[in-house]
Amino acid sequence: MEIEPLQMTPVQMHATSHIGENQVQEPPKSFGEFLVDALKATNELQLQSDAMNAALAAGRVEDISQVMVASQKAEISIQLALQLRNRAVSAYQEIMRMQV
Predict the structure, then answer these.
(1) 47 with 74: CB under 8 angstroms?
(2) What is the pLDDT, as a whole number, of residue 2?
C-alpha cells in the first residue's frame, strides 16, 4: 500500500477583521511632523483665545468662564512649547560641548 502526500493548498482570508489588522496602515509620522502639528495646535488655541477676548470686550460673551478657560488653555500650550524649545536648545548646547 502506497502512502500519498497530502495536497495542501494555501488558505486565503476573505473575512473582514473587527480589530483592524487588514486595514492598510499609514506610515508613521516623523518627529518634525509631530512638532509642526503641535505648533499648529498651539497657534489655533492662541487664535481662539484672542477671538474670545475680543468677543468679551465687545460684550458678546455671556459666560466669562469660557473666556478664562480658553485663555488658560492657550497659556499652558505656549508654556509647554517654550519649555520644549528650551530643552531642545539645552540638548543642542550639550552636544556641541562634547569632545570627539
Answers:
(1) no
(2) 77
- Mean pLDDT per block of 10 residues along the chain (100 residues) reads 71 66 77 93 97 95 94 97 96 93
| Cβ atoms of residues 70 and 52 within 8 Å | yes
Look up cell 518627529; give the residue. Answer: 31
Predicted pLDDT of residue 88 = 94
Q: With contact defined as beta carbons under 8 Å apart, do 52 and 67 qualify?
A: yes
Closest CA to 42 of 10, 86, 73, 7: 73
pTM, to two decimals? 0.68
Q: Give ∠ CA 25-27-31 in degrees, rounded to 5.
A: 140
Residue 6 identity (one-letter amino acid): L
* Secondary structure (DSSP) of 25-51: PPPPPPHHHHHHHHHHHHHHHHHHHHH
